[in-house]
From TrEMBL:
Lineage: superkingdom: Eukaryota
Name of protein: Uncharacterized protein
Keywords annotated in UniProt: GTP-binding, Nucleotide-binding
Pfam family, one: Ras
GO biological process terms on file: small GTPase-mediated signal transduction
Keyword Nucleotide-binding: yes
Molecular functions per Gene Ontology: GTP binding; GTPase activity
Length: 191
């Protein structure tokens, strides 16, 4: 296996419908706390320094975008130079999941950057609820549309938020996709 690309920074852009929890994901990852109240984002960006394998510093620059249609022109200003997109939906909202495939993937496809699909609000998931998205549905669609990875998180419970951003780092550093592993080895480098 070839060594990962050496990069000093990774640009990640979070996209998805409004109120699916994009801002909360990064707040929990970067600050370790869930934000109080809901304030719709127009566009914001943050950066954190992450030490890969405890020695190599990588700046993870995260752009948090507005999901509302009114902000499409502003949102698209953040796309150039993106290394990894995170396309978010709420696991408790089938309509936000459909929008991943019907809208968000189409909007970012010309950027030629890989993407991770993220189901947010995992704490609200109810098995058997037809308005909720199963993990199997999400994984099947992620494979069909050639996502780099698919993960489900809960920002309020801090559940798998670190897994999401580890995927972002691995993807941005050129690691192989966990959805399309070759048989006989994991192909992953753990952070």
């Amino acid at each position: 296996m070839a060594p990962a690309l050496k990069k000093s920074s990774i640009k990640c852009v979070l996209v998805g419908d409004g109120a699916v929890g994009k801002t909360c994901l990064f707040a929990v990852y970067a600050k370790g706390e869930f934000p109080k109240g809901y304030i719709p984002t127009v566009m914001d960006n943050y950066s954190v320094t992450v030490f890969v394998k405890q020695k190599e510093p990588v700046i993870l620059e995260v752009w948090d975008t507005a999901g509302q249609e009114d902000f499409a022109a502003i949102r698209e200003l953040s796309y150039p130079g993106t290394d990894v997109f995170v396309v978010c939906y709420s696991v408790s909202s089938m309509s936000s999941f459909r929008n991943v495939w019907d809208f968000w993937i189409k909007e970012i496809q010309n950027m030629n950057a890989p993407f991770v699909v993220c189901g947010t609000k995992e704490d609200l998931f109810q098995e058997g609820n037809p308005q909720h998205v199963s993990e199997e549905q999400a994984t099947d669609y992620a494979k069909k549309f050639k996502a780099w990875a698919s993960v489900r998180c809960s920002a309020i419970q801090a559940l798998r938020v670190n897994v999401l951003f580890n995927y972002v780092l691995k993807c941005g550093l050129g690691q192989p996709s966990p959805l399309f592993k070759k048989k006989g080895g994991s192909g992953c480098v753990l952070f």
